[in-house]
Specification:
single chain; 67 residues; mainly alpha
Length: 67
C-alpha cells in the first residue's frame, strides 16, 4: 500500500502541475503579459479538482480497506 500511495501522490501532482502549466501558457504569462483567457481558467480549476479528487478518493478507499 505504501507504493500505491507514492504513485497516487505523484500522479495527482503531475496532473496539477500540467494544468497549472497550461493555465500559465493560456494566459501568456511566459510572454510577459497577462491575457485573461477563459479556457486557461477552466484548465486551472480542472487541475485543482482532478488532482484533489484523485488524492481524496485514494485516502477514502485506504480508510475503507482498513475497516
Amino acid at each position: 500500500m505504501k507504493n500505491m500511495r507514492i504513485i497516487v501522490v505523484a500522479a495527482s501532482l503531475a496532473v496539477f502541475f500540467i494544468c497549472v502549466y497550461s493555465f500559465l501558457l493560456g494566459n501568456e504569462v511566459f510572454k510577459g503579459r497577462f491575457a485573461n483567457d477563459g479556457i486557461a481558467w477552466y484548465f486551472l480549476a480542472k487541475g485543482i479538482f482532478c488532482s484533489l479528487a484523485l488524492y481524496l478518493l485514494f485516502r477514502i478507499l485506504e480508510a475503507l480497506r482498513r475497516k
